[in-house]
Each structure stands twice: as structure tokens, then as C-alpha cells.
Amino acid sequence: MGFLITTTEKIPGYRVVEVKGLARGGIVRATHVGRDIMAFFKNLKGGEVQEYTQMLAEAREEALRRMRLHAEDMGANAVIGVRFMTSAVASGMAEIYAYGTAVVVEKLEE
Fold first, then answer.
1. Can you tell me the distance from the alpha carbon of 64 to that of 59, in angstroms, rounded to the nearest whole number?
2. 53 — phi, psi (to 5°)?
3. Over its length of 110 residues, how does the chain's per-residue pLDDT go in tens digits?
4. Which candidate, 96, 95, 91, 97, places its Cα nearest to that of 36?
5. For the chain, first and last CA: distance in Å?
6. Alpha carbon of 26 to those of 21, 31, 51, 69, 98: distances in Å?
7. What span, in angstroms and rounded, lies between the C-alpha atoms of 14 and 70?
8. Residue 81 confidence (pLDDT)
9. Which residues pair with 98 in a beta bridge?
10. Boundaries of domain holding 97
11. How many domains does the chain have?
């Protein structure tokens, strides 16, 4: 079956047999001077700042990875109700936090 992660409270075809608790994973990322320079020039002409988009996408993936590891450490094989939170920690730094309910699920019989 593999490890399941979903934003929904239920997983079609599975039932929750045990709730393990809150699974969480976070990362604080700082901007990079090279990215800041590129962002400055993009800001002048407008449009997407791809350097920051990529940095935040990588941070979200790392937060999810850490959340999964936390859930696995609790004995879960799934995380349901996953949410993200982002906050500014300091100038040029942002925290990306992923959290959800670590559960044990089993496949329903067909």
C-alpha cells in the first residue's frame, strides 16, 4: 500500500483503525543574495519571481517529508487532513509548516 498523505479526512477504499496524533514537519528557509538580486530585477518589470517560487516549493516538499517521518515514527501509515502554514520568521526568512493527523488505515475488503 505505501504511505498515504491527503488533505481530506477520509481516504476512499480505506478505513481509519487508529489515530496516532498530530504529525508535523517544518523548515525555515532564508533567501539567498543571488535570488534576492534576481527578485529585485523581476520586481522592476513585474511577473512571477521564479527563484522564490522554486525555493518555497522545495521548502513545502521538505516540510511534507519531515511530517511523514514524524508520522512513521509514531507508527502511522497515513496522514489525513494535511494543511500548510507559512509565516515570516525574520527579514528574509520564512517558515513552512506541514501538519495533519497521523493514522493507521487499512484497505476495505472488496
1. 9
2. -60, -45
3. 799 999 999 999 999 999 999 999 999 988 765 555 555 555 556 677 777 788 889 999 999 999 999 999 999 999 999 999 988 877 778 889 999 999 999 999 87
4. 91
5. 15
6. 17, 16, 20, 11, 6
7. 21
8. 98
9. 25, 84
10. 4-107
11. 1
Give yes or no for a contact between 98 and 90, defined as CB atoms under 8 angstroms apart.
Answer: no
Residue with cell 527563484: 51
Residue with cell 511577473: 47
CATH of the domain at 14: 3.30.110.70
Query: Taking the CB of residue 53, how many other CB atoms lie within 10 A of it?
Result: 10
Helices (H) then strands (E): counts for the chain:
2, 4
